Amino acid sequence: MRFNLFKQSDIPEKYRSNFINLYLDIAWFGVLSGTAVNFLNVYATRLGASGLQIGLLTATSAIVTLFLAIPAGHWIGKRHTGKAVFWSSVLFRIGYLLWIPLPWLFDAQGQIWALIILTFLMAIPLTPLGVGFNALFAEAVPDRFRARVAGTRNITFAIAYILTSLIAGFILKNTDFPG
User: In order along the chain (179 residues), what is the average pLDDT of each group of 10 residues?
Assistant: First the structure.
């Protein structure tokens, strides 16, 4: 039996580009998760973060989601799902750009608290993004293809996550930490 992860020949042409975009989207999320997200606590620890600060950094998104998931669902329900998900993702991703200047703007403790605050603020658009994506996925992928597309997305995410985690870990191990 031949295994071809991205075989699309049996999928109607009208769905192929959407499915490939869904695979590429999750691959980039795997890169992000395997690098910035995966090593955020490592970076904070190297800066001297306390256990409380690491806990806040880790739990902030879950706390925000706990309080905003249902309101986010109502908000998404009143809008075009695709546009709401798109703009939520843009706002969420802007937060990563704000990480870049932190070492030049703050000392170690300032960076840690800035990361906690940014993580909190990023979680606000992340909540409707997460809620809305589920609805968008259901709209974009016909029922008969959902399991296959979801499975392929999971495999794609795992491969991207593993590879980028290993590469980022190697780079961090072999690069001197400033300060």
Answer: 61 86 93 90 94 96 96 94 93 95 96 97 96 91 93 96 94 80
Q: For residues 153 and 25, give the distance between their C-alpha atoms in angstroms, rounded to a whole number.
A: 9
Separation CA 110–CA 47 (nearest Å): 10
Q: State the burial class of residue 106 (Cβ atoms within 10 Å of its Cβ: 0-12, 13-18, 19+).
A: middle
CA distance 172 to 64: 30
Distances (CA, A) of 104 to 12, 42, 48, 176: 51, 19, 17, 17
CA–CA gap between residue 155 and residue 107 (Å, rounded):
39
CATH 3.40.50.720, domain 15-173, yes or no: no
- Domain-wise residue ranges, the chain: 15-173
C-alpha to C-alpha distance for 163 and 145, rounded to whole angstroms: 27
| Distance between CA atoms of residues 139 and 97, nearest Å | 30
Could you tell me the pTM of the whole model?
0.84
